[in-house]
Amino acid sequence: MWPLYAAGFTTAFGAHGIAANLGGFSDDAVTSLLVLGGLLALYDGAEVLLKPVFGTLADRIGARPVLLGGLAAFAAASALYAVVDSPGWLWAARLGQGAAASAFSPSASALVARLNPAAKHGRAFGGYGFYKSVGYTLGPLLGGVLVWAGGLRLLFTVMALLGVVVAAWAALAVPAVAPLPRSRQTVLDLARRLTSRSFLAPTAALAGATAALSVGVGFLPVSGAAAGLGTVATGAAVSALAACAAVVQPAAGRALDSARITTRTGLSAGLLITAAGLGCATLPGLPGILTGAALIGAGTGLITPLGFAALAATAPAERLGQTMGSAELGRELGDAGGPLLVAAVATFTTLTHGFAVLAVILAIGPAFLLAGHRAKTPAAR
Q: Which of 105, 191, 206, 222 is least surrounded by CB atoms within 10 angstroms?
């Protein structure tokens, strides 16, 4: 499991370590906000398009080869800019990193499920989410230190070495998991499976959690600055958000495995806690920002392992990679849609109203989960 946790750390570190430092330390390559936006969108855009594709490929040929190939490609794409150091090649390197992460991220999730019994899925996904959160937390900090010490090329060099090390580690330690026999699947069959409540409910919860997380990281510093807080205070709030998300995930996974919570109640509680955090973010001053950050982090930390465990429990074993890739697509859409929604509302009203609108949307989620449970109960009887 440790190489899989390292793969989760790698994709998170690769996404945030470079993204957080492109604008401030690469004047030769980032000449305008439009260019910066394009470079940031390349990584996520590649993931949106390719994660379902590579997830399906993992089902066809096995998740381990796709994991190893993705990590090797990530190392190669990172080495490209480290060697060439040209603004034009930065675009190619960033696109290559995103495409490579699209391969090894859903493959790692599928292997987490395949290599653990169902009774331990909560704990397994909790650990995977923990190390991914560590990557998100340390990425901007360590990336900034590396860029300060040796420029953007040094950061890409470290990314390349990280990809090589994790790929070699996975090749040595992760066992081969043969693909399972698959029945013929039509486009209609796929559509039915991806529109079923067993897929949509956890995926929607994961998308909502990711939307809130992105909004918290992106807009809580804006609220802090408007309240007259310095960068240290706002940075502490963002760090508290990421730390709470990291700490809660393993605990949530253990609680699920020991039957102290169920998936439905855990996802509902996570959405309500996250909504409460966004509500606290509307309060003025540092107390509202810190409380909002802590609750957003705790809520998303509760949702993430439970959502993936629910998907692993209900997905056909032979289509696990495709399911995880499609769910990751939902998360990426939430990652982009949450900030866009809050920004659009804030443009016409205030940022406080933007937080409130997203909080209401997330608070409605448990009602749908409860309605789905009640609808299934009479049939079960």
A: 191
CA distances from 162 to 13, 82, 94, 101 (A): 10, 13, 16, 13
Residue 325 is classified by DSSP as: H
Is 81:93 a contact under the CB 8 Å cutoff? yes
Gyration radius (Cα) of the chain, Å: 20
The answer, yes or no, to whether residue 354 has pLDDT greater than 60, is yes
Q: Look up residue 180 and give its DSSP letter.
A: P
Q: Three-class SS of residue 179? A: coil
pLDDT level of residue 377 (50, 70, 90 thresholds): very low
225-234: burial string, b at 16+ Cβ within 10 Å, e else? eeeebeeebb
- Identify whether the C-beta of residue 102 lies closer than 8 Å to the C-beta of residue 54: yes
Mean pLDDT of the 119-126 span = 88
Q: Is residue 204 predicted with pLDDT exceeding 70?
A: yes
Contacts of 280 (CB under 8 A, 6+ apart): 288, 291, 292, 295
Please give the Cα distance from 319 to 30 (Å, whole number).
41
